[in-house]
Structure to design on (120 residues):
């Protein structure tokens, strides 16, 4: 019923930028917590950033100062602006959503992922 549609991934050179988008549909209510995870081959999935209704944000240390997460609450849409990309940012990026932060962390709705590849 609930679907998360991701877009914006691609191939860029180091130092470039990408903007990821995720639109959630089919939910009875707006999601209060939406975020982005990523997973590189051979590595565990990690939280990149999340945003709560009201504007509270959290970022992984590795992306602070380079990535910005934003949200349009009424549309259940979340964005991830990625600047100054590095090869280590390469991976599949997944959108996640939950009615609150705890639900997002433990049993979120997931997008299918979008590939981000940063070449050197």
């Amino acid at each position: 019923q609930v679907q998360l549609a991701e877009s914006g991934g691609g191939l860029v050179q180091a130092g470039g930028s990408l903007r990821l988008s995720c639109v959630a549909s089919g939910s009875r209510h707006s999601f209060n917590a939406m975020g982005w995870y990523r997973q590189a081959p051979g590595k565990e999935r990690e939280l990149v950033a999340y945003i709560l209704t009201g504007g509270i944000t959290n970022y992984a240390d590795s992306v602070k100062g380079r990535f910005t997460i934003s949200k349009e609450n009424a549309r259940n849409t979340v964005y991830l602006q990625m600047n100054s990309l590095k090869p280590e940012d390469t991976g599949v990026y997944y959108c996640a959503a939950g009615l609150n932060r705890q639900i997002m962390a433990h049993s979120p709705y997931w997008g299918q992922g979008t590939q981000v590849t940063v070449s050197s």
About this structure: The mean pLDDT is 94.
